[in-house]
Amino acid sequence: MGKDRDTALMSDCKRGDRNALETLVRRYEKPIYNAAYRMLGNPDDAADITQIAFLKVFENLDQYNPKFKFFSWIYRIAVNESINLLKRRGHQEPFDDKQASNLRDPEAMVEAEHLCDCVQAVLMELQGEHRAVIVLRHFSECSYHEIGEILQIPDQTVKSRLYTARQIMKDKIKARGLVGK
């Protein structure tokens, strides 16, 4: 179900097989939406970016290089489109993510929610290139190599950017008084 399967599906798509395209959409729609949502913080924008990413895949079937993973290609499209949208807007929207907590203690739940909100707010303050590596590594669980393929940067740059992004987040979280100095 990995690279070979996706490559076969892309070959089928190039030959006009709609079922192959539908299979790729079903397989990657949720991960692409989640990455866009973490980048943008808005469910409508994330849905738009997901649609745009798949539309671009369809429009550019002939540009797909089977030597690379389809996953990397479509993620790169989604991340680039997300960054472009952020640049067009020129501002960051607040991130509103109310995730259910399995904590039983109401005080602990409030504390955990506050921390989660703070981390998400800090994530939204990061520049696009830093936010992208954090989202891909920690929310989409991509390897350094996969992030490099998606963003078209060397693995060492991924590591450096991730380190910088984490330091910026850590400093911003400390400035909010949520962790020890």
Write structural notes for this entry.
This protein has 181 residues and is an all-alpha fold. Helices cover 73% and strands 0% of the residues. It has helices at residues 3-14, 18-40, 43-59, 70-89, 106-125, 128-139, 144-151, 155-175. The termini are far apart. The protein is elongated. The protein has eight helices and no strands. Residues 92-103 have low confidence and may be disordered. Helix 6 crosses helix 8. The protein folds into two domains: 1-94, Rna Polymerase Sigma Factor, Chain: A (Orthogonal Bundle); 102-181, Winged helix-like DNA-binding domain superfamily/Winged helix DNA-binding domain (Arc Repressor Mutant, subunit A), CATH 1.10.10.
Low-pLDDT segments, ≥5 res: 92-103
Q: What value does the average pLDDT take?
A: 82
User: What gap, in angstroms, lies between the N and C termini?
Assistant: 46 Å
How many distinct beta strands? Answer: 0
**Overall number of structural domains:** 2
Specify the helix fraction band.
over 70%
What's the architecture of the largest domain in CATH terms? Orthogonal Bundle
**Sheet with the most strands, sense and barrel status:** none
The total of helices stands at: 8
| CATH topology group of the largest domain | Rna Polymerase Sigma Factor, Chain: A
Instruction: Give helix and strand order, one letter per element, not per position.
Output: HHHHHHHH
Fourth-tier CATH superfamily name of the largest domain:
RNA polymerase sigma factor, region 2, helix turn helix motif
User: How much of the polypeptide forms β-strand, as a percent range?
Assistant: under 5%
- CATH top level label of the largest domain: Mainly Alpha
Structural class comes to mainly alpha
Shape: elongated
CA-based gyration radius: 18 Å
